[in-house]
Design brief:
- The protein has five domains: 163 residues, Jelly Rolls; 98 residues, Immunoglobulin-like (Sandwich); 266 residues, Glycosidases (TIM Barrel, Alpha-Beta Barrel), CATH 3.20.20.80; 68 residues, Immunoglobulin-like; 100 residues, Sandwich (Immunoglobulin-like), CATH 2.60.40.10.
- The longest helix has 19 residues.
- With 773 residues, the chain is mainly β.
Length: 773
């Protein structure tokens, strides 16, 4: 059963943006007091295609450039068959702007949240230092280069295969197991601040389980002031101030928030968040402020397991790639946040590994709010380059920790390049960087059998994280016992199961492919988690993986398919195990790990995942089986699979019982003559900012709404109103196994109702309406 994630309302989404907008001045408001002024520049960009001579100069003629909104990528892509040659070049973006009056006599910075891959920025023809790397933010001060009237921000985006992590492998794009379309993939903004301002705040909860818990605040100041400087910080729960402190000083100012009383802990089921608001005062007057969100939690990896707030907890999660169909990494905040909702509320994970790069703050913000613990790691995949390349690795670790160390959801730093060889000097350095900047979280990185052999001499992190893809002699998923004397977890498992023996085929859980392999995926995930739990010392598993992703490594039409959901985030049969791992009091679930179809019945030993105590099965109205969960074969997971022998003779009905009471009934049709075409939008309202977007899922389903495998036909779209389509039009269903998705994007400053008509080539049309406000 597919449990739909809770949709973000427009009000909830605006609240999610509030930390970014804090203290933003309205036009005409005086730039005095405790304020900073941020102007988002996502709207109004001009994209000129491949870089032309002189295109970074202020006076370059750009009237013929394409008008676009950030986030943006340089290539036009479908959802499959990506070719890196379509983006491997240098491209130019330009943005004209007038400096707001409120920013006069202030210092002005331009901030890029991420540019894929390298960025050479100029302001009015003045070149800024080049930034290398596509996943982390950077900032340039442009105060001295601004002029009255029109200013021109120009960016040369270098999306070629460069010696920058994760790239640089001489093999080229096939040397990294994910593709990276170039572009300005996250927001751009202007930040105007006083001559001295708060550059960074680290609010570090310590001793959170003790009565004398406190928050150690490290406030970093930038600039000089003519008068006495004082820093004031407050811990707030909404509008209520729980604690405050003041301290004079320059450079780095340290304060303590104490006497906190009955603070609520941040936990999976109660992810309580607080604000730390820090104000800079000069001559007793507030001139600048800074807000961060924190949570009070203790996360410990021990030799006897993982403990959250003193409670033993098995880490139950998946790896997540952030790359999306059609646009790569260039999706807006709402779409990024929804992945966290899917992982936490639909797949019931308590943790996620951000493989294999720092992911958007929008995703991390949602993880904070949902109680989803996060492993975040530096960009990289298998390859280690020269000294210059390794210096960028160290810089990435520094920038990652500085950006994200206030997020309570992050419980571990990945300071190793994924699946790389041991390099004692490099990883000693990256571990030291993370601990110097944070010190509250352990460090780790995924280890493969090759690097595992020399771990006692060469491993320098805190948590040993292993990629375990071996099989037991009977062909089922194998999980090795933890190493002695160290905290131990699995960074990856299942997805490439028995990889070498099957020449990569087990990485190809294609929705259009082998039905038996699709049916096996959920059972393999159940086996892996059950066997991991059997080792009390094993901290947990982040299995491979949540979503399919574009790749050239053992891929199907340039899509790697080990995900339990496809690239559109639509669950496959492999998701059934995760969907059932929830209390029936929260949501009763019946999720067969098979299709019910007149041509492809599941046959013997078919798996059904459910959180019910008992299942009663009926075919064509005739009772055929009473089932109990297989607690003998899966004694450790909360909700084991049910197994049965089934042949297709008519409609299937499954009734689920908890404590002798039927809580759910699901039906499945073997007759395709009554199939239907369905359409659903994730959100009913969007923000009319030109960037906001929502997913539109379409599928062929049976009369009861269950997926119909291998459905064919074309789906075409007609859109009226202030919105546009991100995706293929028409969309060929046969390529995606009878399901698919596009995204609907708003237009800048145009409100109204967006009407989408989706028409199947033989099954008629469906309408979805979305309000842009």
């Amino acid at each position: 059963m597919n449990i739909r994630p809770h949709a973000f309302s427009r009000r909830q989404f605006a609240q999610a943006l509030a930390p970014l907008l804090f203290s933003r001045l309205a036009p005409g408001q005086p730039a005095t007091g405790a304020a900073r002024y941020r102007t988002f520049l996502d709207e109004g960009w001009l994209f000129g295609g491949k870089l032309q001579p002189g295109a970074l100069d202020g006076g370059f003629a750009d009237r013929e450039f394409e008008k676009i909104t950030i986030p943006h990528i340089v290539a036009k892509l479908s959802w499959q068959d990506w070719d890196p040659k379509s983006w491997e070049d240098v491209f130019v973006y330009r943005r004209h702007f007038a400096l707001p009056a409120e920013a006069a006599h202030r210092r002005v910075f331009v901030e890029f949240d991420a540019v894929m891959t390298d960025a050479a920025v100029s302001i009015n023809g003045h070149a800024m230092p080049e930034h290398q790397g596509g996943y982390l933010p950077f900032r340039h001060e442009i105060t001295g280069q601004l002029q009255p009237g029109d200013n021109v921000l120009a960016v040369a985006v270098d999306a070629r295969w460069l010696a920058v992590p994760p790239d640089g492998n001489p093999k080229g794009p096939v040397g990294v197991d994910y593709l990276e379309p170039g572009g300005i993939i996250r927001s751009v903004s202007l930040l105007s601040v006083p001559q001295i301002f708060i550059r960074d705040v680290f609010a570090k909860p310590v001793k959170v389980l003790d009565a004398d818990r406190r928050v150690e605040v490290i406030c970093t100041l930038d600039g000089d002031a003519a008068g006495p400087i004082e820093v004031r910080t407050e811990l707030r729960d909404g509008a209520r101030v729980l604690s405050s402190a003041e301290q004079s000083g320059t450079g780095e100012v340290k304060l303590i928030l104490a006497n906190l009383g009955n603070i609520a802990l941040w936990d999976n089921d109660n992810p309580k968040l607080y604000d730390v608001v820090t104000t800079l005062l000069v001559d007793g007057k507030p001139v600048h402020d800074h807000r961060v969100r924190i949570g009070f939690r203790e996360a410990r990896f021990e030799t006897n397991g993982f403990f959250l707030n003193g409670r033993r907890l098995h880490l139950f999660g998946l790896n997540r790639h952030e790359v999306y169909p059609y646009v790569g990494f260039a999706m807006p905040r709402r779409v990024m946040r929804r992945d966290a909702e899917i992982l936490r509320r639909e797949f019931h994970c308590n943790t996620v590994r951000c493989s294999h790069y720092p992911q958007s703050e929008a995703f991390l913000d949602a993880a904070d709010e949902l109680g989803l613990m996060v492993w975040e790691e530096t960009p990289g995949w298998g390859y280690l380059g020269d000294d210059r390349w390794q210096q960028i690795v160290a810089d990435n670790v520094r920038d990652m920790v500085l950006r994200d160390r206030n997020h309570p959801s992050i419980v571990i730093w990945g300071v190793r390049v994924n699946e790389s060889r041991n390099d004692v000097p490099l990883y000693t350095r990256t571990t030291e960087i993370a601990k110097t900047l944070d010190g509250t979280r352990p460090c780790s990185g995924s280890m493969t059998p090759g690097s595992k052999r020399t771990w006692q001499e060469e491993w320098k992190e805190d948590v040993f994280a292993f990629d375990d893809y071996h099989a037991e002699p009977d062909g089922t998923v194998g999980i090795a016992p933890p190493l002695p004397g160290v905290p131990y977890m699995l960074a990856e498992a299942v997805g490439q199961f028995n990889y070498s023996a099957r020449k990569g085929f087990d990485a190809k859980y294609v929705r259009t492919g082998d039905v038996a392999l699709q049916q096996a995926q959920a059972v393999r995930h159940a086996q892996a988690h059950d066997r991991a739990i059997s080792f009390p010392r094993l901290c947990g598993v982040t299995a491979w993986c949540a979503f399919d992703y574009p790749s050239l490594v053992n891929a199907h039409h340039a899509i790697k398919t080990p995900g339990i959901a496809d690239v559109f985030r639509i669950p496959k049969l492999g998701a059934a195990f995760y969907q059932a791992q929830v209390s029936p009091k929260v949501q009763p679930v019946i999720a067969p790990a098979f299709y019910w179809d007149q041509n492809s019945g599941p046959g013997k030993n078919a798996a059904i995942f459910s959180n019910c105590d008992r299942l009663e099965l009926f075919v064509s109205g005739k009772h055929v089986a009473s089932l109990r969960p297989d607690r003998t074969g899966h004694p450790h997971i909360a909700c084991p699979p049910f197994f049965c022998d089934l042949t297709v003779e008519g409609d299937l009905r499954i009734d689920g019982y908890v404590n002798a009471r039927m809580v759910l009934s699901r039906s499945f049709s073997s007759d395709p003559s009554r199939d239907q075409f369905l359409l659903h939008a994730d959100d009913e309202e969007l923000m009319a900012d030109g960037a906001d977007a929502t997913r539109l899922v379409f599928r062929v389903a049976d009369r009861y709404g269950a997926p119909r495998p291998f459905a064919t036909g074309e789906v075409s779209f007609e859109i009226t109103g202030p919105g546009g389509l991100i995706g293929d039009n028409p969309f060929h269903l046969a390529d995606a196994g009878g399901v698919g998705a596009v995204w609907i994007k708003t237009e800048p400053r145009r409100s109204g109702r967006i009407r989408v008509k989706a028409t199947h080539s033989t099954m008629g049309s469906q309408i979805a309406e979305i309000l842009a406000k």
